[in-house]
Amino acid sequence: MTLAKPLAGGLPIGAVLTTQRVAAAISSGDHGSTFAGGPLVCHAALAVLNKIQEPSFLASLDVQASPLVDACRDASLLVLTAGKGNVVRLVPPLVVSEEELEQAAVVLSACLPSLDGNTPNQ
Predict the structure, then answer these.
(1) With contact defined as beta carbons under 8 Å apart, do 7 and 87 qualify?
(2) CATH 3.90.1150.10 fits 60-115, yes or no
(3) Which residues form a coiled coil (predicted)?
(4) CATH 3.90.1150.10 region(s) of the chain?
(5) Tens of pLDDT along 36-74?
(6) How do 2-3 and 15-16 pair as beta strands?
């Protein structure tokens, strides 16, 4: 199984899961990758994995994201929905500054309560 984009919260990383038999046939250096595990990206991936392993994470995940998207837009932050409308997609430009990212995090955090009472997808 291959994994990529969401593994590190959108940072460039990829992973391959194999059976023990396949893993035993691969030696160090047999496989290279553009997205091999740099320390920053691996730290982000660990944070993502720790979050999604929390029992409460998946229990409340399947809700429509449009109220959050609307609240963010009203606060001058543009985010999109993806999937069946239950995924929030962040698409900052490559030239985004750290200050702009921090402001976006503040707005996004302030808008999260707009999801309260949202009806789960059927």
Answers:
(1) no
(2) yes
(3) none
(4) 60-115
(5) 668 888 898 899 889 888 888 777 677 899 999 999 999
(6) antiparallel
